[in-house]
Amino acid sequence: MLKCLNLIIMEIKKSEHLFFIPVMGIGFTVDSPARVAHLGINSTISIVDDGLMEKMREYYCNKINKPFQKISKNVEDFRAKRITEYLNTIDEVVEEKYDNLKTSVTEKYDEFKNYLETLPDRSTIKEKFKSKIKDIQFFEKMKGWISENISLGSIDVNIMTKLDKVNYKKGEQMPIEHNDAHAAFRGFANSNLQSSIVFSAGMNNRLYSYIEKFKDFYPDKNNYLKKKITLKVSCYKSAFIQGKFLAKKGLWVSEYRIESGVNCGGHAFVANASPLGYILEQFKNNKNSLIDTLQEAFIDGLKAKNRNYPNKPLEIKITVQGGVATNKEHEFLLNYYKVDAIGWGTPFLSVPEAISIDDNTLDLLLKSSKKDLYLSKISPLGIQFNNLRNNTQDIEKQQKIDDGNYGSDCPNRYLQFNTEFTEKPICIASKQYIKLKIAELKTQNLSNENFNEKYNEVTNKACICVGLSISPMLKNNIDIKQLSRGVSVCPSPSMAYFSEKTSLVDMIKHIYGKKDLIKKEKLHMFIIELQMYLNNLLDEINNTKIISKIEKNKFRKTKNNLIKGIDYYKTLFQQFPKELKNLKELLDIESNLKKITF
Question: What is residue 255's three-state secondary structure?
């Protein structure tokens, strides 16, 4: 019996999940760990909105009968404290659900069988487990066995590094550690979590330097990192520069999360226009070199701080996300590029078991077609934003425009960066900014055509701070008081292929190739991304009235990057004709790209 038990233990260790749920918007994954972490699935919480987290903490405290004491904005360092308390509460919820899972082996075996259904079939563990569970001696040992061998999913958090607004108190600017991103980071750093913080949207030197103040990010005497750093990157160069900057401070990047520039949810960073496969090839070929270079800087950084340093490199994971929607795509990324895990974001918008989404938005998403999913200019950040037509936030915005009451009251104030008209920064989606900007336009003697164009551009900005955070409050009937009820949602184009509400188990079966949820013919994710880059380039050229020398150089660089990527893909597609079937579509994109002249 002991021999059989050890055999099963060894096999279950190989059965770790090969996907994770990345951050989606501000609110859609705010409590995903409470839904999936006990099943060993990693997911990521946005820690932008401390107000949302405070409301969700009250909601979960009520669910687990934990006393709730409100942290008001009058409390010193309230933002960081709210985030810390919320993360600790989610950690408690996960632990409770994990304990219930262990109990379900003996009391609710059917529930535990559902857990087994979520594991990938990398061995015959399920059938062996089912046969051994009939043995009463094995059955009695199962609760302890689960504790030792089935790990929890990680409760990771995400910060957009650029959302680091300066804050004021009684009219005086507060110290830098009270900037939005700094305070959010401190909230995670002071929490009980043993997980990763994901930094997205590029490098923030001051924020990265602030990490040095927190001991949990340094290896202990056993080389264990209680808290880890993940960088979301769009190219190898960025990964190398940011990784080395941190390594010199004695800080190790445990994961590089590569994301498609355009074929992803949320904001789209199209400037680089390097195809995803080409970028993954660079990471695949240079991973060992990256580790060696960073290890040397890392050791020097730790020695300079008189800290313990490891005698061999710590683990580095390479992961990828953005556009994956089929098991074949998933398997190709794993097997050819040797990535450690793959982020499945947008498809999980059809899985209300895993995310917090209101019924109306879910219904809109499931009915959406390709034409309903587009890159927009609604974001106050000035970055293109994946959008869903006729979402309730945009409908509400248009109604305000029609009523002459355009703009948001800006209740959350996370995107206040513009100082065009004011000394203190304001948001360009706010009533204050739009009123001032339209007044300025009226003094410029513009033609009706030019005025209307600029007017539409100004009034088109949406309050995504509220829009991206409101869905979980609507879903859970949480009092939203004066907040807008309009929901913004930012799926990738892959949403068009998921048209039915899906259970968590069925989505996992889809990921692992045991079930196919896609009923339509689908182009490969690499082709969809190239089409998006091509369309974006054409739009930019067509919308640029006077193409200056600077613009020409920018367009040429984009075109050349895409041609380079296509040349790479042509070899790859010919090498793997079964996995990558869209060679004709690839050549069509190349032909259309070469027709572009400046």
Answer: strand
In a domain, 284, yes or no: no
Report if residue 469 sits inside a domain: yes
Nearest alpha-carbon partner for 497 in 344, 384, 393, 394: 344
Q: What per-residue string of b and e applies to 144-158 under the rule 16 or more CB within 10 Å gives b?
A: ebbeeebebbbbbbb
pLDDT score, position 103: 74
Interstrand relation of 385-388 and 373-376 (parallel, antiparallel or unpaired): antiparallel
How many domains in the chain?
Answer: 1
In whole angstroms, give the CA distance from residue 323 to residue 513. Answer: 17
Pairing relationship of beta strands 172-173 and 42-46 according to DSSP bridges = unpaired
Report DSSP letters for 119-137, one per residue. S--SSSHHHHHHHHTTSHH
Res 225: pLDDT: 97
What pLDDT was estimated at residue 134? 64
Altogether, the residues listed in the chain come to a count of 598
Arithmetic mean of pLDDT, 229-243: 96
Q: Left, alpha or beta for 413 (phi > 0: left; psi -120 to 50: alpha)?
A: left
Is residue 94 one of the residues assigned to a domain? no
CA atoms within 13 A on the CB side of 449: 0
Model pTM score? 0.93
Cα–Cα distance for residue pair 114/301, rounded to 1 Å: 47
Please give the residue range of the domain that contains residue 517: 348-522
Give a three-class secondary structure readout of 519-567: CCCCCCHHHHHHHHHHHHHHHHHHCCCCCCHHHHHHHHHHHHHHHHHHH
Could you tell me which of 387, 541, 573 has the C-alpha nearest to residue 464? Answer: 387
At 434 the three-state DSSP class reads helix
Residue with tokens 């005086």: 172
Residue 595 forms part of a structural domain: no
